[in-house]
Amino acid sequence: MISLLEARNIGKRFGGLQALTDVSLTINKGEVYGLIGPNGAGKTTFFNVLTGAYVPDGGEFVFNGSELPSGKPHKIVGRGIARTFQNIRLFKELTALENVMAGHHIRTKAGIWGILTQNRFTREEERLTTERAYEMLRYVGIERFAETVSKNLSYGDQRRLEIARALATEPQLLALDEPAAGMNATETGQLKTLIEQIRHDGVTVMLIEHDVKLVMGLCDRVAVLDFGRKIAEDVPAEVQRNEAVINAYLGGGKHAH
Amino acid sequence: MNELVAAVPWLGKRNPMAARWLLIILAIAAPFIAMQFGRSWVRILDFALLYMMLALGLNLVVGFAGLLDLGYIAFYAVGAYTFAFLASPHFGIHLPFWMVLPLGAAFAAVAGIMLGFPVLRLRGDYLAIVTLGFGEIIRIFMLNLNYPVNITNGPQGINMIDPIVLFGWDLSRNLQVTEEISIHSLYLYYYLFLACVIGSIIFIQRLQISRVGRAWAAMRDDELAAKAIGINTRNMKLLAFSLGATFGGVAGCLFGAFQGFVSPESFSLMESIAVLTMVVFGGMGNIAGAIVGAFVLALLPEILRDVAIPLQQTLFGKVILDPEVLRMLLLSLAMILMMLLRPAGLIPARARYAHPENLHRGGAAK
Amino acid sequence: METLIQQILNGLVIGSVYALIALGYTMVYGILGLINFAHGDVLMVGALTALQTMLFLMGFAPGMSPVVMLTIALAVAIPVCMMIGFTMERLAYRRLRNAPRLAPLITAIGMSFLLQTVAMIIWGRNYHTFPQLISTTPMQPIEGVFVTPVQLTIIGVSALIMIGLMLLVNKTRIGRAMRATAENHRVASLMGVDTNAVIAFTFVIGAALAAVAGVMFASNYGIAHYGMGFMPGLKAFTAAVLGGIGNLGGAMLGGITLGLVESLGAGYIEHLTFGFLNSSYQDIFAFIILGLVLIFKPTGLLGERVSDRA
């Protein structure tokens, strides 16, 4: 197995709150990796540190064999890590198509001069971007809404669009922050199929999720965070039996069911 | 252009082709129509075109990139003063127009980046106040840099600026076509400015429908998400400031040459606010809005001047609201009422950042 | 040495005026997150209303004692400004509380210019001499240092008002409601606070302070006109940011600091730049300070974080 991402002793503190303490984990190429834990365990903080929204106080990420720059989101996306947000964050005045095309930004190169003169390279690149964006929309199943302004899409379609936008950055690792939140059973089922498809097409997936059934059914391996520490990392079946994990969920007043 | 066509009342939706031709004919015939009301109206039209360029440039910063700039007129000033320094007896330098114009644009762009750097991290209202301060600093320097070395000639400003000369053709002189027929200089400037406005529209539309335009819109709608898809927001902001400033600088050069003199008075905060009102009034973020806003708000005060002054004379026997007061009243009310009643502006067209129909035409997808 | 003391004194005088205006900015910002751009122009309306009242009184009762006259002028100017503050909030800002983030600010800019225009219509475009009812004859407490009674009055009255405001905000029921609303509108209203009334009250108090500041400002310089509110308004905003916007103590500290910097800067700029820049550049200090604070210490001297607030 080849490791894609390696987190080494990641720490993050906000004022008096130690949000992450020495979190280390390894994600292998081609797997679906789950990150679970009670509310406030530090899962989203981990995502934010990984994707450069926050600078970690300690530790480092190694991605594809070399260290990731910390606190520089655009460089991290460039290296091949894309994310979605827990509370959907689309460009709400843009259409679905434009959202996905914006996602392709980092893989395009046209400069100001090329844009102003509309030279052959720019036109060709723009055509490819449009084409790719349609492909992505088709891939997540919302091509028919390509020209709908994204704020007018239904909740489930907004989630799909956000995934399409993230995929447009051509990531090797896709980090999904509670993609099933607020979805009904049918939508969750469709989401599961989509994530499996994404993995099948060669993108490694990291996933924060509360829906334990989804996590257990989908993930190859799962890490559990509690109070900013990793308390377990194993295949789903083992994690479910793990003493510390059960205590964390029960002790935190939350049931894993 | 399509947005503008669609904005033509009644005709725009039913017959876009006819609406397009109507606009083109009107644009060409405008100075001749204006001439029927007197020469000063042609001059007013010329100024309206300059305002359109300013509104287009500011719209790029405010409407596309979402950065509220209250000191935009400073870039206009940089352009105008560049022209005044390099083509007037003030320093005794008389560079040709085609050399000064790119210099003015470049200086304005540099000024835009200079403003951009310190304000990168600021958002919304703070950005507005700091840019306002920047505009005021530029104006204070223009007012006071006549001592100890006379650079700007202080409040008097700089006179006798060279006119625009293109290929040996002096635009400030009437063009003698035949013995009897001559084309007035104001017309020549009108068509030059019109060409500049059309050029600006084309450039801005190309920017809008490009990776850059989408990146700006993304940043405006959600900066954090924009970063998360790999947009370098720092560079994109600087680009917006400098490109917006470039349009201001070009308009400033044209203004200096057209007017023949520049003074700090022309670059007051009120002018920044006037341009902002034009953008807001027309509809932030769309090109047609900026054009229509600039056109209406540049002309309306002048129409009021012609109508309201005589009206007041007959009604009250004296002038209570002079033209300048009327203009300020109009602009401030336009701004407040627009925000309260129609925040999307007069022409609330959704700006487009992609051209999917090109793809369908080529049959490449679907 | 005399110059230094003199400049510090001048700085304190102008600084206390800035502080009074800054309080209005900071209270409104603290509660609504809105920069009320028109706040400086409320000051101008206060000064011109007071001027109008004085002119009327001078014609009506020429022998009236200056102190009584000034008091009456204030008694007219303050309610007028309060009404303007109330009206602005009620008619414009309240409707825009949930609007996109640039809308209230653009409206406030429009308000500022509307007030200036209306003042221009009423009082014309000229500079008016503002009657200096408190003596402006300089005294010389130290050889070479001059101070006028009007300057001493400004410092004294500002101090009193600030103490009063602190008491109002920290010790009274309405003050507590204000603090609760600033913390969180929704929760405050769930707790039974009439947040609309509290916000209106905040605008009204801010406007009253601006009226007093306007009269002081005009008395100090002996001049009033329609555009007089713009610069002090902007500088007071700078003072509020410098002190930490949303923080009352910060506004006072920021006001005094800015007054001192400006006054000392104007006194020494010619030395510092080898005669290249002179005191006509005094106005740029505020902007430079504003820029520096926002870049390097956006929380201000004593305040909350501001660069993330949209």
Automatic annotation (TrEMBL), chain A:
GO cellular component, one term: plasma membrane
GO MF: ATP binding; ATP hydrolysis activity; L-isoleucine transmembrane transporter activity; L-phenylalanine transmembrane transporter activity; L-valine transmembrane transporter activity
Key word ATP-binding present: yes
Pfam families listed in its UniProt record: ABC_tran (PF00005), BCA_ABC_TP_C (PF12399)
One GO BP annotation of this record: L-valine import across plasma membrane
Keyword annotations from UniProtKB, A to Z: ATP-binding, Cell membrane, Membrane, Nucleotide-binding, Transport
PROSITE patterns (UniProt xref): ABC_TRANSPORTER_1, ABC_TRANSPORTER_2
Domain ABC transporter: 5-252
Name the record gives this protein: ABC transporter ATP-binding protein
Organism, scientific name: Parazoarcus communis SWub3 = DSM 12120
TrEMBL record, chain B:
Transmembrane segment boundaries: 21-42, 48-68, 73-91, 97-119, 126-145, 187-204, 238-261, 273-304, 325-344
Pfam families: BPD_transp_2 (PF02653)
Cellular component GO terms, alphabetical: plasma membrane
GO MF annotation list: ATP binding; branched-chain amino acid transmembrane transporter activity
Family matches, as CDD domains: TM_PBP1_LivM_like
Record keywords: ATP-binding, Cell membrane, Membrane, Nucleotide-binding, Transmembrane, Transmembrane helix
Highest taxon, organism lineage: Bacteria
InterPro entries: ABC_transp_permease, LivM-like
Subcellular localization(s) per the UniProt record: Cell membrane
Membrane topology type: Multi-pass membrane protein
Protein name as annotated: ABC transporter ATP-binding protein
Species the sequence originates in: Parazoarcus communis SWub3 = DSM 12120
Automatic annotation (TrEMBL), chain C:
Topology of this chain in the membrane: Multi-pass membrane protein
Pfam family, one: BPD_transp_2
Keywords (A to Z) from UniProt: Amino-acid transport, Cell inner membrane, Cell membrane, Membrane, Transmembrane, Transmembrane helix, Transport
Transmembrane segments: 12-35, 42-61, 67-86, 102-124, 144-169, 196-217, 237-261, 273-296
Subcellular location: Cell membrane
Domain of life: Bacteria
Entry's Gene Ontology BP terms: D-alanine transmembrane transport; L-alanine transport; L-isoleucine import across plasma membrane
Main location: membrane
Record has Transmembrane as a keyword: yes
GO molecular function: L-isoleucine transmembrane transporter activity; L-leucine transmembrane transporter activity; L-phenylalanine transmembrane transporter activity; L-valine transmembrane transporter activity
GO cellular component: plasma membrane
Family membership noted in the UniProt record: Belongs to the binding-protein-dependent transport system permease family. LivHM subfamily.
Alphabetized PANTHER family for the sequence: BRANCHED-CHAIN AMINO ACID TRANSPORT SYSTEM PERMEASE PROTEIN LIVH, HIGH-AFFINITY BRANCHED-CHAIN AMINO ACID TRANSPORT SYSTEM PERMEASE PROTEIN LIVH
Name the record gives this protein: Branched-chain amino acid ABC transporter permease
Biological source species: Parazoarcus communis SWub3 = DSM 12120
Lineage, highest ranks first: Bacteria, Pseudomonadati, Pseudomonadota, Betaproteobacteria, Rhodocyclales
